[in-house]
Amino acid sequence: MTDNIKVGDFLIVQRQKYTKLQKFNNLNTIVNLGKDQVELRLAENHPYQTTFHLVPKQERGKRIYTLDALSTPSEIRNLKELLIKESGNDNRNIIDDRQSQALSTEEILKLREECESSSEVIGKLVENSKSFATKTEYSQEKYLKRKEKKYFEYITIRRPSIRLLAEIYWRLDTEKMLGVRFDTLSQIISYSGVCSVGNYLLYESGTNGMLPAAMLNSIGAGTGGKLVHLHPGNVAQKQALLAMAFPAEQEARCVSVNIYSVLRHFYQTKEADNGKQAEAKEAKEEEAVVADEPAVVEEEKEGVNGTNKRKHDDADGGSEVSEAKQIKLDKQKQSWEVENETAVSIMEQKFDSLVIVAKEHPYSILKALLPFVKPSRPVVIFSTSREILTECYVDLKTEASVTYLRLTSNWMRQYQILPNRTHPDVTMSGSGGYLLTGYTIGN
């Protein structure tokens, strides 16, 4: 993994507090930031965390920009220091009559084309504002931030991380994250005890790949940890996994398989093994019976030996044919069959924790997967419904298959911290969901 931006990478494009995930497919890739279109061509080979200046291209009717890397972020000018010179005591005499700005819309658009920087545009707006000087300092700061957000001409390109991806997916659509907020995600990882060693079992039914990406990130690269990722569909959601661009060795230790397919494969394999053991036992019993019988006539023995010799010769020739046939069959196996076999081999060793994040009622899934978890290992179940987890809590208490059961809810509030005006954000999520945690009991 290099520290420079290259074609094929997933990028986090940040403009002030706004972030967007973008695949840098080729040198013609364009990222849309609101009404602005930004060409990423000139970002190639620059280090991550580089701040770029948006340079407008002369194309009539379109707001297209190219990139110019800044040698240091300090080149970004501080509008507060530049433009706030005097302030009023309060806003009681300010009347919002839509007449405070002397410049018309056409003149402002012309300014955007003529001025070299956004700070010049904002400076002209401040000069032509009749009420700016009479606003309080706090109101002036809010005004400048609002205008800066609209005319800001810098972006920073960052490498994707679990926190940034979780924030982006949560902002776009909380349902596509199954309601898993970032603070809840961190608690799931903490309760499940995911680390660099051990085998871990995850079932999730659609979080854009955030859960497997977060768990694989905690396992780390160059370790012995393995993750079996179960999902209900034909194809697993792996957007976040792909965006994280883990090393090939680390990514190979996450096996994504359909839950119904792999369970069927596991139990069919188990039945086949039991059948082979039964046949071997019967063969041993027959040999014991033959050994106890009296000696046969020499001629009959020779005939039998000759027949056995022919059978042995046939078996040698047949074994070569069966080996060649098996190699041919292995080559014909589809990728999902190979993944099922890999997952089954890990399932036979059993797992060090179980995590379930499901749209469905989790109890039947929990019952199906609990036999694959070692004793005294953590179990974590997430749901946006408290009632569903309460039902699971009661059932698990009755069966006594999981102990130290705890049902918890997350409550996180973001605060605006400013002098004399500290308060919670006006808009925030109502709930981060609920977690049911416990530890398995040995049979």
Automatic annotation (TrEMBL):
GO terms for cellular component: nucleus; tRNA (m1A) methyltransferase complex. It is found in: Nucleus. InterPro entries: SAM-dependent_MTases_sf (IPR029063), TRM6 (IPR017423). Gene3D superfamilies: Vaccinia Virus protein VP39. The keyword Translocase does not apply. The keyword tRNA processing applies. Its main location: nucleus. It comes from the Eukaryota. Residues 273-287 have a biased composition (Basic and acidic residues). Residues 273-322 are annotated as: Disordered. GO terms for biological process: tRNA methylation. Keywords: Nucleus, tRNA processing. Heterotetramer. Belongs to the TRM6/GCD10 family. PANTHER family: TRANSLATION INITIATION FACTOR EIF3-RELATED (PTHR12945), TRNA (ADENINE(58)-N(1))-METHYLTRANSFERASE NON-CATALYTIC SUBUNIT TRM6 (PTHR12945:SF0). Substrate-binding subunit of tRNA (adenine-N1-)-methyltransferase, which catalyzes the formation of N1-methyladenine at position 58 (m1A58) in initiator methionyl-tRNA. This is tRNA (adenine(58)-N(1))-methyltransferase non-catalytic subunit TRM6. It comes from Anopheles maculatus.
